From TrEMBL:
Entry's localization field: Cell membrane
Record keyword Secreted present: no
CDD domains in UniProt: ComA-like_MBL-fold (cd07731)
One MF term in the entry's GO annotations: hydrolase activity
Spans through the membrane: 29-49, 56-75, 237-258, 265-281, 317-346, 366-394, 401-419, 425-445, 452-475, 481-500
Transmembrane helix found in the keyword field: yes
UniProt topology in membrane: Multi-pass membrane protein
Top-level division of the source organism's lineage: Bacteria
Keyword set, alphabetical order: Cell membrane, Hydrolase, Membrane, Transmembrane, Transmembrane helix
Metallo-beta-lactamase domain ranges (all copies): 519-715
GO cellular-component term (any): plasma membrane
Protein name as annotated: MBL fold metallo-hydrolase
Length: 762
């Protein structure tokens, strides 16, 4: 029987850490929570004392204690001279110690280096304060060269921080070094650099993944590979996690055993290994969290490991929340705890059931990733709106390569400190291992049903939690018999390999469909039964023809080619195939010539004459009202059509249908977007067709002001352009916009449902 007392106390600590900052902030919510906490402490504590229920009393005290600690922590960060100066946007000079590595962020007009720092002294408004409080720093390229642990002096302007974990945001000038980092930070930097050097001669993705596995250093990892890891549930490999620590410290313990270390000496090696790993991977909250979860994993390997690890998990949660209450709202912390709990609670019964008819090593290889993934599924769905169907399979396939890649990567760094060629040998073998991991991620992300959409409302998530709980309860009964166990695995495999059917396609109430035509655009705006306005034709006639057939489109009263690049016009024959086309609008810029010729030949064969889209015109076609917003009537009709010139001449349409407003932007560039921002101030829409396949070159500030509920990006899988850019996707998601992309979601339909936007994918 599992002893769950400490895990229950850990859950109580979590509840208190969530409530404390709300109570400290005051307001109506704070008052309500304060009353509830008082009731819990008073009623629950009194009952526990009378009934001599030590565990209940401890739980009540834990909730109250962590609430107080979290409230004080929030107040300390929020109420101090730095926060006061930030509220007044004061110009200051600070002396601070840099506490995180640089991260490049792209603003609207410049690129910045983001660092976190601990302020020691601040001078502002004629007063000098000496204190300790965290701030976020945005600086120029000079900040990228400041080593971690360095104390610097810099001038800048303070502003409010978006995070409750920092007192202010400092937009800083060039830093001046006051004191260099300590010996431990210098040693850590040298080893991290040696790990990178040991694999630098290998292909870029492999060279970037090895340091990520060893110490969480994912600089240089391509956006498309990171997306593939996210789709296949392998993102945990790119960040510092308990797995990293378990593998690294486990390797050190094996070496210590070979060297004759026994008894308490092994504990000493383990403790030193944990400390060394934290220094190597940086003492950020995520690393400390990973170290705690890794230590729990090591406990699980000892005698009576499951019981000890469960108690250790509860103790780790309590300790971490008392040290840093802000972890209570950290997604990484939540996923780490859930994954560890899933492995400890679900893993053993699943393993024992599978062990009845397969080898133990195989049973553990299946049970561990499956248990961790199931425990994390509701939280992942709440964050991403997706449920991965290949995560268990992908984790199972990569598991044999993770340990040797991690250990060999670390060994390559250590040997490289002695002799570079020796380190490169170990590093090369490590990259051979990660090559398999990359292949699995790429293959899994390309599967038709790699992930499915899941609503993020309370009811949908409650249903998902219930489904996961049922699976956890029923799995041992299903897996203990070879027939049902194999059948279940085959069903899961079939679901991943075959695209799930989309019942009732096209969906009732559809307004707009973005066709999956690879790297290109093709959209259909419903105007009535069997009728639609088609905007762009993609690069392949067969793909756009198939999409329109699936929508049962026979009549096209209007076709629009936003500009003449191949990825928008080359599939135009598929639009005309077997359909009646009324009018044909194009960009005013009749360039590049190849695209103009392709359209002219197809239109001529169909007896349709292309005409420039009439700027400012509004027309109603069936259910849709369409307005031409761009290009202007005085724009060029001839010129260099390659690249940005043709893109910026794209036809931009505002469509209104069934109470929804849709902005279809072609490939318009930031210059054109900026002009539209001036012309259409205050424009509010429901659906945005993201310009230029989600390229990084956007007027992101304007796109965010549109407040679209849904953004659609038509993009080819693993295209050579890096579309869509992570900065564009995240920039839109930060405003609450749900981003859909054809390379992951397939064909995307926007549906009007009760006056609201809904999305169906196929």
């Amino acid at each position: 029987m599992n002893d769950l007392r400490l895990p229950i106390l850990g859950a109580g600590a979590w509840a208190g850490a969530l409530a404390g900052p709300v109570v400290a902030a005051g307001g109506r919510a704070g008052l309500v929570l304060m009353v509830l906490l008082a009731a819990v402490v008073g009623i629950g504590g009194g009952w526990a004392v009378r009934k001599r229920r030590a565990t209940v009393l401890a739980l009540v005290l834990m909730i109250a204690g962590t609430a107080v600690v979290a409230g004080l922590h929030a107040a300390r960060v929020r109420d101090n001279p730095v926060a006061d100066l930030a509220a007044r946007k004061a110009q200051v000079r600070v002396v601070a110690t840099v506490t995180t590595d640089p991260k490049e962020v792209r603003g609207e007009h410049a690129t910045y280096q983001l660092r976190r720092a601990s302020v020691r002294e601040i001078r502002g408004r004629g007063v000098v304060y000496r204190l300790r409080t965290p701030v976020v720093v945005l600086g120029d390229e000079a900040w990228a060269d400041v080593p971690l642990g360095t104390t610097v002096s810099a001038a800048g302007r303070l502003g409010r921080s978006d995070s409750h974990e920092e007192s202010a945001l400092l937009v800083a000038d060039e830093p001046r070094v006051v004191a260099g980092p300590g010996i431990w930070w210098r040693a850590s930097d040298r080893l991290r650099a040696s790990i990178r050097d040991a694999v630098a001669h290998r292909p870029p993705d492999q060279a970037a993944l090895v340091p990520a596995l060893v110490d969480g250093d994912d600089t240089g990892l391509s956006d498309d590979l990171a997306d593939d890891f996210r789709t296949t549930g392998l993102t945990h490999l790119l960040a510092v996690s308990g797995t990293n620590l378990t593998l690294v410290v486990g390797f050190l313990l094996i070496v210590a055993r070979w060297s004759g270390v026994r008894g308490r000496g092994l504990y000493a090696v383990g403790v030193l290994g944990i400390i060394g790993f934290v220094v190597l991977a940086r003492t950020e909250p995520s690393v400390v969290r990973a170290a705690a979860m890794g230590a729990v994993g090591l406990l699980a390997m000892t005698n009576n490991g499951r019981q000890r690890a469960l108690r250790g998990l509860g103790a780790a949660v309590i300790g971490l929340l008392l040290i840093d209450p802000g972890l209570a709202t950290s997604v990484g912390f939540t996923l780490s705890v859930l994954a560890t709990a899933g492995i400890l609670l679900f893993g053993p019964p699943w393993r024992d059931a599978l062990r009845r008819w397969m080898p133990q090593w195989c049973a553990e290889a299946i049970a561990v990733p499956a248990a961790a993934q199931l425990a994390c599924t509701p939280v992942v769905a709440a964050i991403s709106g997706q449920v991965s169907l290949v995560a268990v399979l992908a984790n199972l396939l990569v598991e044999p390569a993770v340990a040797p890649a991690t250990v060999l990567g670390l060994l390559g760094g250590l040997l490289g400190l002695v002799w570079d060629p020796l380190g490169m040998v170990a590093g090369t073998v490590a990259t051979w291992c990660v090559a398999w991991i990359i292949a699995v991620a790429r293959f899994g992300a390309d599967l038709p049903s790699a992930q499915v959409g899941w609503a993020t409302g309370p009811l949908a998530l409650a249903v998902l939690v219930a489904v996961c709980a049922a699976i956890a309860f029923l799995a041992p009964r299903v897996l203990r018999h070879p027939v049902t166990g194999v059948a279940g695995c085959l069903v899961l495999l079939a679901v991943a390999l075959v695209r799930l059917p989309s019942p009732g396609w096209p969906p009732a109430g559809w307004v707009l469909v973005m066709c999956d035509v690879g790297q290109g655009d093709a959209l259909a705006v419903r105007t009535g039964p069997g009728s639609a306005v088609v905007v762009d034709a993609g690069p392949d006639p067969d793909l756009v023809d198939d999409c329109l057939d699936g929508l049962e489109i026979q009549h096209i009263p209007l076709a629009v080619i936003t500009h003449f690049h191949a990825d928008h016009v080359n599939g135009v024959e598929g639009v005309f195939a077997g359909r009646q086309v009324g009018e044909l609008w194009t960009s005013r810029l009749q360039d590049p010539p190849d695209g103009v010729q392709i359209l002219g030949e197809a239109a001529g064969a169909a007896g349709v004459v292309p005409v420039p889209a009439p700027y400012g015109a509004t027309t109603t076609i069936g259910e849709a009202r369409i307005q031409v917003l761009w290009p202007t009537a005085d724009s060029d009709t001839r010129g260099p059509g390659d690249g940005s010139t043709a893109n910026d001449a794209s036809v931009v349409l505002l469509v209104e249908s069934r109470g929804l407003r849709l902005l279809l932007t072609g490939d318009i560039e930031p210059e054109g977007q900026d002009q539209l921002a001036d012309d259409l101030a205050g424009l509010d829409i429901d659906v945005l067709k993201v310009p230029h396949h989600g390229s990084r070159y956007q007027d992101l500030g304007w796109l965010r002001t549109l407040q679209a509920q849904v953004a659609l990006t038509s993009v080819g899988a693993r295209n050579d352009y890096g579309h869509p850019a992570t900065a564009t996707v995240k920039g839109l998601e930060e405003t609450g916009t749900e981003v859909y992309r054809t390379d992951r979601d397939g064909t995307v339909a926007v549906v009007e449902s009760g006056g609201e936007v809904a999305v169906v994918t196929r």
